[in-house]
Input
Amino acid sequence: MPEDGIVIDRSRNTIRISRSYAANVDRAWWAWTDAEAITKWWGPAGWAATVYEMDVRPGGRWRFQIAPEDGSTEPVRGIATYRRVVPRAELAYEDSFADEAWQPDGTGTFPTAVTFSSDGTGCRVEVEASFPDGQALRRAVELRMAEGYAEALDRLGDLLETPMETRSCRP
Output
């Protein structure tokens, strides 16, 4: 099994981020598919997430915004349209950045797949974002997308390690 970390594959124009957690697949799935839960960890450290829509089914949409808690820059809006949903196993969606009117901002879409698998007593989550060409991948790298995902997955680990009784949101 591959190690936790980030792999930027320029031959395939992909970014893959992997993390293992002590929590089981059910808890990780909940954290990815519950609107309240995702606001607790989505985005890099120091950013807050707001979910405007989360319809986890093929054809459903997830509209979200992340913004720096200190207000140092404009919020980033995203729209993900789910293509494939296999409960507790896979989320596949077309991701795009959006403008203030929730319209795609013209920078294109990138297919993203999130897979969940049991890993001993815990689970493994892998995120792979694909880009149409090397230029789009370079832009994602320059925007530090991989590091942002990695920070978000670290924050996910913090949520998953929080005992159920002390969480403000429940699976």
